[in-house]
Write the structure tokens for this entry.
Amino acid sequence: MAKKEVKTDLWVYDLLKDAGIKLDPQGCSIKEVNEALKTASKKGTGNVGFPEYVGVVKDFLIVIEDKSDISFHEKLDKTGAISSETKDVMEYAINGALFYGRHLIKNTSYEKIIAFGVSGNAKRHKITPIYVEDTEPYTKLEDVESFISFNEDNIDDYYRKNILHEDTSEKDLKTVLKDAADLHEDLRVYGSLGTREKPIVVSGILLALDEIERGNFEIKSLKGDKVKTDGQKIFDAIESKLLRDPIKPERKRDKIFAQFNIFKTSEILNTINPTLEKTPLRYFAEFLYKHIYKTIKLTTTSEDYLGRFYSEFMSYGGGDGQELGIILTPKHITDLFCDLAQLKKDDVVLDPCCGTAGFLVAAMHHMLKLTDDESEKRHIRQKQLHGIEIEDYMFTIAVTNMILRGDGKSNIESADFLAFNSGELQLKGATVGMINPPYSLAKKKKNSALYEICFIEHMLDSLTPNARAIAIVPQSSVTGKTKEEQAVKENILKHHTLEGVITLNPDTFYGVGVNPCITIFTAGVPHPKNKECKFIDFREDGFKVSPHIGLIDTGNALDKRQHLLEVWTGRMEAPTKFCVKSTIKATDEWLHAFYYFNDEIPTEADFDKTIADYLTFEFSMIAQGRKYLFEEEKDG
């Protein structure tokens, strides 16, 4: 390896290590691969030739060729294909990688090879994967920022999505959406249920279904009996479930029971429907057992299925909760919060506006993965997850969600978070705060206490010193346009530290019309004046809008998130177009766009493009009879 490329080689090694991939440098421990490389001379002499790294991940052969200078990343021939000329193969990263990939596909038994052309350094670089197979020339894939998508856990999924173009996540999402649409319509037609009643009925039936294993409930017992109605049987099963799980205080349990009284009081739900030939309650129980209950109980992911269904109910009902400021957080964002917080198994998490408990579900799953000790897992479920929710029906759904996820004791309270004394909340000992506050409640000056930034401030005041606090809010919340908001920002910096702000994909809350960002703070530590915060532009997050479905993973979301985390934690530098570091003032707009400056040196290609654009403009003006624009003025 050339001396000038040693730094690049070491940087690539670190990337592989971070992704959990072990490859051999300058050779291969696999005999048939090493034998093939003995005749892989780039000069065509038939002598030995080694790429920088080569090895196997599952049944994929991975080859990496790197160059220190990003201008030697790729050379194309006159047809636009990757040049196979000897000089180009020797000098350019992609060309060399493809050469080795083609040689190995012909001279080994491996049928799937991913060759990487890598150039540059940790701050400015290009990483281009190329899929090589015997029957096709090659497939150049979208550039990546890391190798996380190519480790043993992720490479099969990457292969299906990016090479075979089998978007399994989209199929799963289509199923969820179809089930939600069908159930929404059935709840309306057969149950005459309104927007708020639908998720309560769903939640109650799911709790009753959880009693099947204990012999306290059977779907086949729902026969439309007039003496003991189907609703009474479901209510009894709910009661049995909630009395067994120590939900305290008693008034909290009573509030949940009050929400579930609809099972006993609704005549239409308890009467056999002539079309269904059974009661609507039995029909709903059968549907939910098949489509939802098994998914919630069997899943090991942090997917908030109950929250997803609730969101779909609201949207199909003609509104998505925006009139109440309710915007449920997508799964990929709740998971990102856990990564940004770098959750530990002994953390105590508080979500003071918990909605359907999406953040708490994600936090619970992340923390449980960090220990194999059953007593520690029990402590996480029972003591380390706290939520507050002001809406009674949302509170009931959140408690149900946590119980169904195996939370032995739900620490979710039905209350107004802003009415709590922050000192009282500090007694919970929360070391991590996560919040998606209600949006746009402060539409008039008299309601300025309901600004999203006010919810953030109160959460910060409610956490233990040095706690990590993360919020997702509209970008307008951190620009501080009003005097009231600027005053809150000023006060936050007096008592807490802003670590940074991440600008998100504008379609994160698809269909809602909110441009969101994530703010990250350290609670209880006054902001140092000379502190440099990180402002990141993460609009390109690997998700796109699919018509009639919503936001889906393009196949690159994992790589994009890994790059974000590498930059956020300081393990990788990034150009200012992605991350700007800056000191701040309360009057600043805390966004990447406010601090961004272009510090990149123009390339030769940039220069050529500028000249071409100018010549095109000049020709267009002359063709329109405006040649005088380019003539020098003569002295009179």
